[in-house]
Amino acid sequence: MTTASMVAALQRLSGREMLINAQTADAFLSNVARFSTVKPEEIAGFEATSRETLALAYGFDDDRQADQRKAFVYQDGIAVIPIHGSLINRFGGSWGFVTGYNFIQRMLNLALDDDDVDSIVFDVDSPGGEASGCFELARLILASRRVKPSLAMVDSVAASGGMMLAGAATKMYAIPTARIGSIGVYRQHTSVKGSLAQDGVKVTFAVAGEHKIDGNPFEDLPESVLKDWTTEVNKTWDDFIAIVAESRGMEPAAVRDTQARMYRSDEALALGLINAVKTTTEAVPAFVAELADCDTPDDEEDDEMTEATKGKEVSSGLTPADLEKIGGLIAAGVGAAIGGLTRSTAIKDHGKAKGQVALAAKLSANPAITEADAIEMIDAAALAADPKKKGSPADKIPMGKGGKGKGKVAAGDDDDDDLGEDEEIVEDGEDGEDGEDGEDGEDEAEQARSQRQRQRVGGRRQRGDNVNHLDAAMGRTRQPRLGGGNGNERQVQGVAAETNALLADHAAVSGAGWSKPKSAAA
Predict the structure, then answer these.
(1) 3-state secondary structure labels for all residues of 79-125
(2) Tens digits of per-residue pLDDT, 422-445?
(3) How far apart are alpha carbons 70 and 99 in whole angstroms?
(4) Whole-angstrom Cα distance, residue 3 to residue 479?
(5) pTM
(6) What CATH number labels 3-291?
(7) Any idea where the domains of the chain sit in the sequence?
(8) 268 and 181 in contact (C-beta within 8 Å)?
(9) What are phi and psi of 384, to 5 degrees?
(10) How does 156-194 read in b/e, with b if 16+ C-beta sit within 10 Å?
(11) I need a labelling partner for 315 at 20 to 30 A (CA). Which of 68, 234, 329, 482 fits?
């Protein structure tokens, strides 16, 4: 190594804030000194060697023609970008022992823009580098997470600036023997004053501005300048801590507490600086599986579950017959529940139930009463509650047994002139059967009007809208007992008493006022 190359390396260090580990400072200097001596014809060889080494580390096939290769190592949707050696600003190459921030940025942008690339792997082996350019690149990597996921694979050093860049990736793995950390900043001053004095060289400055020559290498660093540098370094350290805390999801205080120490992989994992300890060959499959939210093959918990259940059949202990029986019971229960709900809803939603809420609720709650019977009783109660309302559900009500054909009107008082005892009311035709032979009969509306005018109840004829519509409706079908008498097929004689009892029950439930008609039979 020539004196000129070492001077060039020292010039990169002297007076600048550095993100390198002091333990590897000699390696950084050596790499930078070597960098300054590389000849143009050697560059292609360094680049080819670096690329080949990177592909072999991940088992990728990179033996493509130069015009078919991507700018980065690539296979199966994975782009691999190196963060190797000493990291320097304003350099667009990667030669294995030195990598430029500009190179990493360019490769990252190309991978983000490439539709073939699903995720990005940063292969990290670096003692760190210059502070200038590192923070900007780390922020770019952190932002790229929102575009494509990334993995930093540490093999085998991620120190200082290398740690900052690696930590900015979506996930960070490290091989078991890796060294991680050195989250700190320093600024170095090199004085050649003594060496120059031995050679009889003396440097003199004419200065305009008190701090113009602060940190020059030809004299020792004044205490006041050292204090200023220390303040600046602490500010940069705060920025370093903040970006690592954000990247790794840690508390800033926890990052500060590391005090720039270097850690083994297991220690770094315990602190939260890395996400997992993996070999290089394990890293990519594990990362891809994690992205797919799948369990990785080496998941210890899954391995334990697999061993515990291996060769064992999990069973509920129920036989096919048991399952069939349970299924039948469930189906029957569901069917009954649906049927009951449908019936109850139909009764409560019936148009005239709005004025007979209490009665509708009572009828719907009694499963012994069919939907049709409940609706008929609601209609009858609604008409009975409003005697002035025209029309009656008692139109064409057959009074005889079976609810069909001719109906007998009960014998009544002799002072009724319109109908004699046992006179038949034929609704639609001579035979009373749906009007099949009643071509000369009255139309339906006229029959209804006439019937309402002539109907007898309890031995007394009720004319027009004075007819007891509820009693007429209740006579149409067989009714259950609701406290108002027997709902079986009934003779007209005495039906008024039963009807009045039902109306009394309804009044008690609904709160509606009601008194027994004077004409009702006792």
Answers:
(1) EEEEEEEEEECCCCCECCCEEEHHHHHHHHHHHHHCCCCCEEEEEEE
(2) 444 444 444 444 444 444 444 665
(3) 18
(4) 119
(5) 0.57
(6) 3.90.226.10
(7) 3-291, 345-510
(8) yes
(9) -65, -30
(10) ebbbbbbbbbbbbbbbbbbbeebbbbbbbbbbbbeebee
(11) 329
